[in-house]
Specification:
mainly beta; Immunoglobulin-like; 7% helix
C-alpha cells in the first residue's frame, strides 16, 4: 500500500512540473539546444518572436530558421501568403512582377493562431534564364511541329511581323499557303521573371524554291581563341568562309581560330529538301561596338586575347587599324633555369597595319627562347605603325644551348620587343622596369634591325639591356632613322655597344643617353660603332650622328667614345 501511495505521489509531482514548464514558456517555445540542462540556471532557450536568418537561394526560394511549433505568413509585394514550413518558392507566387523585383517579409503564427512581429522588409530581383529555342520535330508543307517545353508559358508565332499567341503546351502551327516570300518566327514565351523568352527560330519561305531558308547564325562571340554562335534550328552544318573565299564546313556551332584561320562569314545549311542555306553573316571578332578596322573606326582592343587577333588579320593579308582601350597585363609565367623556353604572348608574323596604344600600358611581356631571334613581330612593313604605348615589366631572353660534346651551338639569337626588322614607324613608346638579355647575340629594347623610323621613344633607368655581342637601348643595328629618343637604362655587351644604337649605318639625331654603357670594344654613349656601308648599284647609306648628347658613363677596352 505504501509503495502504491509513493508512486502516485511521484506521478503527481511530475505532472505538476510539466504543467508549470508549459505555463512558463508557452506554445511558441523551442526545445532546449544541445547542452541546455533546462534547470532554470539561466540556460533556457529564449522565446523567438521574429524569424531569423532569412535568405534567398539561387533558384528563388526564401528560407529562414525554423521556430518550434509555428507556421508562418509571408507578405510578398503586398500580398499575404500562409506558409506551413520555413521555405517558400517565389516561383509559386500568384503574380510575377514584370521587373522581377520581389519585396517580402515573414512572421510566425503560433498554435493558438496568434501572429508575431514582421521581420524587416527585404528585396530580391530574379533575372531568370532564357528558355531553349524551339526544336522542330517535323515540317510538312506549311505545318510546323515542335517538342514542348514545360517552362514555357505559351508560344508566339510571327508571320511577316504579325504575331499570333498560342496557349501553353501548344506544339504545332499551320499557316496559310504563302503567295510571296514569308518570314516565320516561333518563340517560346517565358514568364518574364524566372524564364525569359527563347531566341526565335526563324525561317524564310521562298515561293520560287518552295523551301524554307534557315535563319542566319546569331550572337557570334569569341572566348580566348574559340568562336561561338547560337545553333540554328534545322541546320545540320555550317559553312565558314575566309577572306580569300575559301570554304570550310563544320557540324558544330563553334570553331578554333587556330584551325579555321580568319573566318569572315558564317552560313547555316541543312541536308534537307525542306530547308535551304541561310544568308551569310559577317563575323565581328571585336564585338558589335569593337570598331571596323578603318582609320576612322579602328578595331578596339581591351584584352590580351584580342591583342592576338592582330596575328589572324595579318595572316589573312589584312592591314587593319587597331587601338588599345585599356591597360593589359599578360599572364604570369616563370623561368627558373637557363635553357627553359616559353612565353606568355604569341610571336606573330609580319605587321603592316596601324596600332595606336592611346597611352595605355602593356605589362609583363615575358618569354625565353633558344632558337633564333625573339620578338613580337618578325617584320614591320613600310606601312606599319606602332605608337603611343607604355611597355612595363617586360622580360625577354634568348639562351645559348650546349650539347653533350661541350660544343657551343649558336642558337640563341637577337632579342627585342617589337620586331626583328622594322621598315615602318615606331614612335612615342615608353619602356619601364624591363629586361632584354641575349646570352649569345645582340639585345635592344625595341628593334633588332631598323630600316624604317623610330621616333621619340624612351627607356627608363629601371630597365636593363644586355647582349653577349652587340647592344643598343633602342635598336641593335640601324640603317634607317632614329630621332628624338632618350635612354636611362644600363646597356652592356662585348662589341658595338651604344646608349641608343649598337651599330649605325643610318641617321641618328636629337637623341640623349643618361645610362651607363659598358663593353669590350667599339663602345659609345650614343652609337657603339658608326660606319659607312655601300655596295655599288645595290645600296649606299649616308651615316650621320647629329644634335645628340651623352650624360652617362662609357667604359670599354678599345675604341671608346663619348658619342660614338
Amino acid at each position: 500500500m505504501k509503495k502504491t501511495l509513493l508512486i502516485c505521489l511521484i506521478l503527481c509531482v511530475v505532472l505538476a512540473l510539466t504543467l508549470a514548464i508549459v505555463a512558463c514558456v508557452g506554445p511558441d517555445a523551442q526545445p532546449p539546444v544541445d547542452g541546455d540542462s533546462g534547470d532554470g540556471g539561466g540556460s533556457t532557450t529564449p522565446v523567438v518572436d521574429v524569424p531569423q536568418n532569412i535568405e534567398v537561394t539561387d533558384i528563388g526560394a526564401i528560407t529562414w530558421k525554423s521556430i518550434y511549433g509555428c507556421t508562418y505568413e509571408l507578405e510578398i509585394n503586398g500580398v499575404v501568403v500562409p506558409v506551413a514550413k520555413n521555405r517558400y518558392n517565389l516561383a509559386d507566387f500568384s503574380t510575377y512582377p514584370t521587373d522581377g523585383v520581389f519585396e517580402f517579409r515573414v512572421r510566425k503564427v503560433d498554435e493558438q493562431g496568434q501572429v508575431g512581429t514582421w521581420s524587416e522588409m527585404k528585396s530580391v530581383t530574379i533575372r531568370g534564364r532564357v528558355i531553349n529555342a524551339i526544336a522542330l520535330s517535323s515540317v510538312e508543307g506549311f505545318t510546323f511541329t515542335w517538342r514542348n517545353n514545360a517552362n514555357a508559358s505559351g508560344v508566339e508565332v510571327k508571320v511577316n511581323g504579325t504575331s499570333y499567341s498560342l496557349p501553353k503546351g501548344t506544339t504545332t502551327y499551320t499557316m496559310d499557303a504563302p503567295t510571296q516570300d514569308t518570314t516565320i518566327s516561333i518563340i517560346f514565351k517565358g514568364d518574364g521573371v524566372f524564364h525569359l523568352d527563347s531566341e526565335p527560330a526563324t525561317f524564310v519561305y521562298s515561293v520560287e524554291s518552295k523551301s524554307y531558308r534557315l535563319d542566319t547564325p546569331k550572337n557570334i562571340y569569341v572566348e580566348e581563341q574559340t568562336v561561338y554562335f547560337d545553333h540554328v534550328v534545322g541546320a545540320n552544318y555550317y559553312h565558314l568562309y575566309d577572306y580569300t573565299g575559301h570554304r570550310r564546313t563544320i557540324k558544330v556551332n563553334h570553331f578554333d581560330m587556330e584551325t579555321a584561320l580568319l573566318v569572315r562569314y558564317i552560313q547555316a545549311d541543312a541536308d534537307s529538301d525542306v530547308f535551304s542555306a541561310s544568308e551569310m553573316v559577317e563575323v565581328s571578332y571585336f564585338g558589335e561596338d569593337g570598331g571596323k578596322g578603318t582609320e576612322e573606326d579602328p578595331y578596339l582592343i581591351s584584352t590580351t586575347d584580342q591583342f592576338r587577333y592582330i596575328e589572324h588579320y595579318e595572316a589573312a593579308g589584312i592591314s587593319a587599324h587597331y587601338a588599345l582601350v585599356a591597360d593589359m597585363r599578360f599572364a604570369s609565367i616563370a623561368f627558373s633555369e637557363e635553357g627553359e623556353t616559353g612565353a606568355n604572348f604569341y610571336r606573330m608574323g609580319s605587321f603592316s597595319g596601324h596600332l595606336d596604344g592611346r597611352g595605355h600600358k602593356l605589362t609583363n611581356f615575358k618569354g625565353a627562347y633558344k632558337d633564333g631571334y625573339f620578338t613580337l613581330f618578325s617584320t614591320i612593313h613600310s606601312t606599319g605603325i606602332i605608337e603611343n604605348i607604355v611597355i612595363a615589366e617586360a622580360n625577354l631572353q634568348t639562351w645559348t644551348e650546349k650539347t653533350a660534346d661541350g660544343i657551343l651551338h649558336e642558337k640563341g639569337g637577337n632579342v627585342a620587343l617589337f620586331a626583328h626588322i622594322n621598315r615602318g614607324t615606331i614612335r612615342n613608346i615608353t619602356v619601364t622596369a624591363s629586361k632584354f638579355i641575349a646570352s649569345h647575340d645582340g639585345a635592344a629594347a625595341l628593334v633588332n634591325i631598323n630600316q624604317g623610323n623610330i621616333e621619340n621613344c624612351t627607356v627608363d633607368s629601371k630597365s636593363v639591356i644586355s647582349g653577349h655581342s652587340e647592344a643598343g637601348a633602342i635598336c641593335i643595328y640601324n640603317e634607317g632613322r632614329v630621332t628624338g629618343c632618350v635612354n636611362h637604362a644600363s646597356v652592356s655587351g662585348n662589341g658595338s655597344i651604344g646608349g641608343i644604337v649598337g651599330r649605325n649605318a643610318g641617321y641618328v639625331a636629337r637623341c640623349t643617353n643618361y645610362g651607363a654603357v659598358a663593353g669590350s670594344m667599339r663602345v659609345g654613349g650614343i652609337v657603339g660603332y658608326n660606319y659607312n656601308v655601300s655596295l655599288a648599284g645595290v645600296y649606299e647609306y649616308a651615316t650621320e650622328v647629329r644634335y645628340c648628347a651623352n650624360h652617362g658613363t662609357v667604359t670599354g677596352g678599345v675604341k671608346v667614345g663619348g658619342i660614338a
